[in-house]
Amino acid sequence: MSEEVFRIVIDPKDHRDLPRAVITDCPSHLMTKTGSWRTLRPIVDLEECIKCGICWKFCPDVSIEVKEEGAVVDYDYCKGCGICAKECPVNAIDMKKEADYV
Ligand code: SF4
Ligand code: SF4
User: Fold this and answer.
1) What is the mean pLDDT of residues 76-93?
2) Is 95 near ligand 2, meaning CB less than 6 Å away?
């Protein structure tokens, strides 16, 4: 085994020594809408929203966008975890039963 191969495979010094991965397909979130998993639906009160962007920052599914009118949820991908409602500093997001909206 050459010294170079040994360094990369056996004794990497840091992440730069690790092999690079190639992603050949488009991101899975574009192919699989995960909103159907939701049992609770975040409802934003746009009158209360101060457009701080904290919900956008914490949403694990990147399902919130802060627009001119306030925080807007993308229900195609929101899984209903409720983190946004928990983190909103002005309690502008309520988690409601999904069954009431379908
Ligand atoms: S409920 Fe969860 S997944 Fe849905 S918008 Fe809020 S943080 Fe994102
Ligand atoms: S965290 Fe609350 S106040 Fe801030 S942008 Fe989101 S909904 Fe609006």
Assistant:
1) 97
2) no
Measured from the Cβ of residue 92, the count of other Cβ atoms closer than 10 Å reads 22
The CATH number of domain 25-100, selected from 3.30.70.20, 3.40.50.300, 3.90.1720.10, 2.40.320.10: 3.30.70.20
- Nearest atom (ligand 2) to Cα of 45: 7
Determine the atom of ligand 1 nearest the C-alpha atom of 73.
5
Query: Angle CA(77)–CA(97)–CA(41) in degrees, nearest 5?
Result: 25
Summarised one tens digit per residue, pLDDT across range 28-59 is 666 678 898 899 999 999 999 999 999 999 99
63: CA distance to ligand 1 center in Å?
Answer: 6
SS3 category, 54: helix
Averaged pLDDT for residues 61-68: 94
